[in-house]
Design goal:
single chain; 265 residues; alpha+beta; 8-stranded mixed β-sheet; 3-stranded antiparallel β-sheet; globular
Amino acid sequence: RKALFPAGELAAGVGAMLGLPSAASPRAAMACKTAAQHRSSVVRWLVSSTLPSWPLEEVASALATRAPRPATAPSSPGARRSAAVLLPLCMDAQGPAILFCLRATGLSSHSGEVCFPGGGVDGDDADIVATALRETHEEVGLEPSQIRVLGRMRNLTAKNGKQVTPVVGFVSGAIGSYLDASKLRIEKDEVQTAFTLSLKHLLEPDTLSWHNLPRRPLGRPLRGPCFRLPPDLAGMSSEVRVWGLTGFILHTFLFDILRVERHAL
């Protein structure tokens, strides 16, 4: 069975960037064996015509098979080089979805780009999960009590050298039955707007494309995942894409954690 987007699509060097184990390593073999136990139920759910809800227990179990690197303690000297983002699963009017932010214009870095809520570790944060929840509250107004933390993904290294830990959580229906991103309390100095993308859209064959990145580990070309937005997404330029570090995190979650496969769609 071929994966929807095989590992071969990621040029040499991306596996190391994402911290994925070598296919020949015992750890990789064990991870594949354990993930196979969860693959059937998750994939069957993903291809359901009704897509009723996120399978939270299966997602948490799949995350648990991908043991993350130890997070930097907030009080340690390396904490200033650490950050966390929340990958916020939610339900919107179309069913299972993921919440994103569009960074405000005029910021010193990544201005006007799509991202997950998050930021740098604060010395008062109890742990890296607390960092993700605090930053999410500051940027989009969601209370920590509204988020069920499902687990952590392996941390990635951003262009500025920071170690970024993605925390996966499910946002309860904060506003009515579904999460209405247009009614969230946005921190306008940091976030231009918040929006959701349905899982159905993210898994459409023409949503994902690949673009060349300037970084060339070991002198080899590197390609990165790029997710297009729906053409009818209100107030968004047709040029906006989910790419960069956010694209890598999203791609890893969908096609490594959830193990979406070509035959399943």
